[in-house]
C-alpha cells in the first residue's frame, strides 16, 4: 500500500518504510541509559526519591509525575504495585482505583483491559484529563535507566507471583542495580529466594526502627526505609551494617536537612521541586 512507502532520502527510490527503518538501525541505538544509570549508583548522598513521582503537582503514580521527576534530575522515583486479575503489575497506591481515577473497583478483581481506560488525572482537574494508570513495564520503558526505582510491592501475590513478575521484568532490562524492591517481610522473603541479586529495602516494622533493622539484616537488605520516627541510635545501627537509609518522608527543605544531618541518605518527597537545593541542584 502506498501509505507504507516513502523515499529513502531526497531523490532516492521509494522503499517500504519498514525496510528503511531496518537498514538504518545502529548497534546499541535502543539501549537504556546505561551510563546515566551508573552515575546514579555512584552519585553521593544525600539523594532525592520522588514519592509517587512529583505527586505534589502531578497525578500520583502516573507517567507525567515520573517524567517530571526525571526532568528535574531526581535520583529515584517511588511507586506502588498491585496485581490485576489477569496478572498485570499495576502502578497504584491503593488496592482500589476509586480514589485516584474515575472508576471503581479493586485492582485484584479488574483486568488490564478495563484498567487501561481509566482516567487517572481528571480528579486533579481537566488539564490532567486523559492521563492513564500505567503498568509497571510502562514505567520501566519511560524511565529507561534515567532514575532508580523504589518499587513498593504491597502484597507478594499468590505464591509470590507479583514479586516474581517484577523480578523477571527487571532481569529482562539488564540494567545495573539501580532499582530495588521495597516491602514487608512477606515480600522480601519471596524476593531474596527468587532473585537474590536484586537489591531490597526493608519496610517491615517502620514504626519500630530497631526491629526494622533486625529484619533488614536477617533478609540481607541493602536499605531500610525509616518513617519520621527515625532515631539517632537506629541510624547508627543501620550505618554499622552499611545499610542505605531512606526517609519516608519530607516535603520541606529545612526539615529534610535536619534528617540528612542525622544520617539519612535518601529523602522520599512528594515535592521534589522544593528540595532540589538539598542535592545541590
SS summary, helix count? 10
CATH homologous group name: Phosphatidylinositol (PI) phosphodiesterase
- Poorly predicted runs are 24-30
Determine the N-to-C terminus distance: 52 Å
Listing every helix as H and every strand as E from the N terminus to the C terminus, the arrangement reads EEHHEHEEHHEHEHEHEHEHE
Strand content: 15-25%
Number of spatially distinct domains: 1
* CATH class wording: Alpha Beta
What's the CATH topology name? Answer: TIM Barrel
Share of helix, binned: 25-40%
Q: Give the overall form.
A: globular
**Estimated structural class:** alpha/beta
Q: Which architecture would the CATH scheme give at its second level?
A: Alpha-Beta Barrel
What's the number of extended β-strand segments? 11
Main sheet record? 8 strands, parallel, barrel
Give the overall average pLDDT: 91
Could you explain how this protein is built, in words?
- With 281 residues, this protein is of the alpha/beta class.
- It is built from 10 helices and 11 strands.
- It has a single domain, classed as TIM Barrel.
- The strands form 2 sheets. It has an 8-stranded parallel barrel, surrounded by 5 helices.
- GO terms for molecular function: phosphoric diester hydrolase activity.
- This is GP-PDE domain-containing protein.
List the helices and strands and how they pair.
Blueprint lengths: L4 E3 L6 E3 H7 L10 H9 L4 E5 L11 H9 L4 E8 L5 E3 L20 H4 L20 H8 L4 E6 L7 H13 L6 E4 L1 H10 L5 E3 L6 H10 L4 E4 L5 H9 L3 E5 L4 H10 L3 E4 L12
Parallel strand pairs: 3-4, 3-11, 4-6, 6-7, 7-8, 8-9, 9-10, 10-11
Antiparallel strand pairs: 1-2, 4-5
Amino acid at each position: 500500500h502506498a501509505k507504507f512507502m516513502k523515499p529513502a532520502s531526497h531523490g532516492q527510490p521509494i522503499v517500504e518504510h519498514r525496510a528503511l527503518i531496518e537498514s538504518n538501525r545502529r548497534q546499541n541505538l535502543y539501549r537504556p541509559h546505561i551510563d546515566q544509570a551508573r552515575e546514579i549508583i555512584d552519585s553521593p548522598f544525600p539523594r532525592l526519591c520522588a514519592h509517587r513521582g512529583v505527586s505534589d503537582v502531578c497525578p500520583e503514580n502516573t507517567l507525567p509525575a515520573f517524567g517530571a521527576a526525571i526532568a528535574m534530575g531526581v535520583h529515584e522515583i517511588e511507586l506502588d504495585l498491585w496485581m490485576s486479575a489477569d496478572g498485570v503489575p499495576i502502578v497504584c497506591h491503593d488496592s482500589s482505583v476509586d480514589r485516584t481515577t474515575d472508576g471503581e473497583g479493586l485492582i485484584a478483581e479488574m483486568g488490564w483491559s478495563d484498567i487501561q481506560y481509566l482516567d487517572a488525572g481528571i480528579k486533579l482537574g481537566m488539564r490532567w484529563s486523559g492521563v492513564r494508570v500505567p503498568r509497571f513495564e510502562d514505567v520501566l520503558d519511560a524511565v529507561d535507566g534515567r532514575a532508580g526505582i523504589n518499587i513498593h510491592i504491597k502484597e507478594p501475590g499468590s505464591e509470590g507471583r507479583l514479586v516474581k513478575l517484577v523480578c523477571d521484568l527487571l532481569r529482562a532490562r539488564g540494567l545495573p542495580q539501580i532499582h530495588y524492591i521495597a516491602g514487608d517481610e512477606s515480600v522480601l522473603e519471596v524476593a531474596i529466594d527468587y532473585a537474590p541479586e536484586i537489591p531490597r529495602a526493608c519496610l517491615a516494622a517502620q514504626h519500630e526502627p530497631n526491629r526494622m533493622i533486625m529484619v533488614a539484616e536477617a533478609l540481607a537488605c541493602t536499605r531500610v526505609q525509616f518513617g519520621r520516627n527515625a532515631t539517632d541510635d537506629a541510624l547508627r545501627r543501620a550505618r554499622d551494617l552499611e545499610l542505605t537509609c531512606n526517609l519516608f518522608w519530607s516535603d520541606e527543605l529545612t526539615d529534610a536537612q535536619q534528617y540528612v544531618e542525622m544520617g539519612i541518605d535518601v529523602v522520599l518527597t512528594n515535592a521534589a521541586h522544593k528540595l532540589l537545593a538539598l542535592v545541590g541542584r
